[in-house]
Write a structure and sequence with these properties.
The radius of gyration is 37 Å and the shape is rod-shaped. The protein is built from no helices and 25 strands. It has 230 residues and is an all-beta fold.
Length: 230
């Protein structure tokens, strides 16, 4: 006998759906539901199993993370805003590698070190898809690092003593020598010479090395005038 078909959504007939197939176009979240067909002939009806349709929106990044320029030792925060059908999950990456535990809308580094420099992004996912944000570069700017400390010396009175310091760092480095913590006028090179050692010039010397991002102070170097020659 002739079979007739009626499609239903959540138990309610859908108009003009009288074929063996039912096609939905231009899906939205309103299309979510349970679909079934009721098949009839002269002798009765039979209901198909229900087929659940879930429609959602893949994640979209509404606000991308921003590049950061940070002085070492400070904190930095990367943040994004995303839209899409819940539930959204987040996984932050550095240089395309997952960061353990970094699974929220923001990622915070509390004390930035030079090793943290790189490109940060986040993968936002839901049940429908995943999308990756643009990369945000973290540039870490550091105060100078003193690579060679000045050395303590014992020098015969009347002779000269020379202190030297070596440092590395970003940008232009400046130097200021100190005696007992007080700046020495004009002593602004990587070396400092005491031309006439005496009990007056004896003391503790150090050097402050600076750049745009901060400063570092060398270890103390003691100048001792040889008492036997005073």
């Amino acid at each position: 006998a002739t079979l007739s078909y009626q499609w239903q959504k959540d138990g309610v007939n859908i108009s003009d759906t009288n074929a063996t197939n039912y096609t939905l176009s231009n899906l939205t979240e309103d299309s979510n539901g349970t679909y079934r067909a009721v098949v009839s002939n002269a002798y009765g009806t039979a209901n198909s199993n229900g087929a659940v349709l879930k429609v959602g929106y893949a994640p979209a990044i509404a606000t991308q993370p921003s590049a950061q320029f940070i002085v070492a030792g400070n904190s930095v925060t990367f943040s994004i805003a995303a839209t899409g059908t819940e539930t959204l999950t987040y996984q932050w990456q550095k240089d395309a590698s997952n960061i353990a535990g970094a699974t929220s809308t923001s990622y915070v580094i509390t004390s930035v070190q030079t090793s943290h420099a790189g490109t940060y992004s986040v993968v936002v996912s839901n049940a429908y898809a995943g999308t990756t944000s643009s990369g945000a570069t973290l540039t870490v700017n550091s105060p100078p690092t003193i690579t060679t400390q000045p050395a303590s010396q014992t020098v015969v009175a009347g002779r000269l003593a020379r202190f030297s310091v070596a440092a590395s760092g970003q940008g232009t480095l400046t130097y200021q020598w100190r005696k007992s913590g007080v700046d020495i006028a004009g002593a602004t090179g990587s070396t400092y010479t005491v031309s006439n050692v005496s009990s007056v010039t004896a003391g503790v010397y150090s050097c402050v090395v600076s750049n745009t991002y901060g400063s570092s102070t060398s270890a103390n170097a003691t100048l001792t005038a040889d008492a036997a020659n005073l």
